[in-house]
Design a protein that fits this description.
By secondary structure, this protein is an alpha/beta fold. 38% of the residues lie in helices and 20% in strands. The chain folds into 2 domains: 185 residues, Thiamin diphosphate (ThDP)-binding fold, Pyr/PP domains (Rossmann fold); 111 residues, Rossmann fold, CATH 3.40.50.
Length: 384
């Protein structure tokens, strides 16, 4: 399906990353937004609140982040593409209902414009220290999909991609951006609506009484439309294919295995990496989000000096690109992770390298992007 021409602001625009994300959601067909203002994500809600009345969407400022996440789950089951946005403290509050969304298999998008933490931390300054919380912030075993844009243009494009993935895999999807990308203003090209490919909600083609919310022996079931005669039950409890609670180990294994398999069996489809000068590299710099732009001067300087340095930008951070990192670890001398934290995603890279090459973390506590000089120094250390 193509985007609705009436809703897409086609052409070249000068937008900050948060506005670009809002426009991406609108282009993706989002018609319900519930959220609570929190720096540095508030501009997404502000933009949506102005634009939704013009396109038949519903914007609700909720009383808090717990309610916001619950509201977008309900709106999704009601038939609307839905989204919320937040930053670190609100992300923590949303994690319980994010897990509910995983268990209910509810398509929706949650944007986290990261700032420095912990606690209220640095409300107006950047960070990337919510990445491990994105992976494990709710309780229980589950898999997630998390994307990381490095520009307003990618903010627009990856928001559409996040909605498409949420519909394809019937699950909440995370867009993990940061204050720098959220507040930087750059040229954003919004393509004509006929060039924007959308994945629409898959509903059952069975009649009421013949369909259930979780079909037996089906990895990703079509949803049942509410209000059209279908009788079904949905719950965060361990359940059977009908949605009814079943409290035993066998049902738990069946539930959790399938929830995890949706992602684990489709890792190749979900993994999105952008690689440069990797094939002949001795050292590869791995990064995501705004950090993937900051590393470029350091890599260029090192290559001018004859050091064979490659770059991998992770557009998809979760699921982590384990297979590619394992391949590289057997070929290069060192892998360097650059991120605005003290090594959250680095630990995954180091685990996958499994001692077959040296691994380095170039990190800090946030509040500012990296000095390219520190990245350059780490590259020099790696080649020694």
């Amino acid at each position: 399906m193509k985007a609705d021409p009436q809703n897409v602001l086609t052409g070249a625009h000068y937008l900050d990353g948060n506005y670009a994300i809002a426009e991406g959601a609108i282009a993706a067909g989002c018609k319900f937004f519930a959220g609570y203002p929190i720096t540095p994500s508030t501009e997404i809600a502000e933009r949506v609140s102005r634009r939704f009345p013009l396109i038949g969407g519903i914007f609700v400022q909720m009383e808090d982040e717990l309610a916001s996440m619950a509201a977008i789950l309900g709106a999704s089951w009601g038939g609307k593409k839905s989204m919320s946005c937040t930053s670190g403290p609100g992300f923590s509050l949303m994690m319980e209902n994010f897990g509910l969304g995983i268990m209910l298999e509810t398509p929706c998008v949650l944007v986290n414009v990261q700032r420095g933490g912990p606690s209220t931390g640095l409300p107006t300054l950047p960070g990337q220290a919510d990445m491990m919380q994105a992976r494990w912030g709710s309780h229980g075993d589950y898999e997630v999909i998390a994307l990381a844009p490095d520009s307003p243009q990618e903010g627009f494009e990856l928001t559409i991609h996040a909605f498409n993935l949420s519909e394809k895999y019937r699950m909440p999807v995370l867009l993990m951006t940061d204050e720098c990308v959220g507040h930087m203003t750059e040229k954003v090209i919004i393509p004509p609506p006929e060039e924007i490919e959308l994945i629409e909600r898959r509903y059952t083609d069975k009649k009421p009484g013949e369909a259930w919310p979780y079909q037996e022996n089906e990895l990703i079931s079509p949803m049942l439309p509410v209000g059209e005669g279908y009788k079904f039950h949905i719950t965060g409890l361990t359940h059977d294919y009908r949605g009814y609670p079943v409290i035993n180990a066998e049902a738990q294994a069946e539930n959790v295995d399938r929830l995890m398999a949706k992602v684990k069996e489709n890792v190749d489809d979900l993994t999105w990496l952008e690689e440069k000068d990797v094939e002949d590299a001795e050292v590869v710099v791995v990064s995501y989000g705004i950090s993937s732009r900051v590393v470029q001067p350091a890599i260029a300087k090192a290559r001018e000096e004859g050091i064979k340095v490659g770059q991998i930008k992770m557009v998809t951070v979760w699921p982590f690109p384990e297979k590619r990192i394992r391949e590289l670890a057997g070929k290069v001398k060192a892998l360097i992770m650059v991120e605005m934290n003290y090594g959250q995603v680095y630990l995954e890279m180091d685990r996958c390298a499994a001692g077959r090459c040296e691994t380095y973390i170039c990190g800090h506590a946030g509040g500012t992007v990296h000095d390219p000089g520190s990245v350059y120094s780490t590259i020099k250390d790696a080649v020694k």
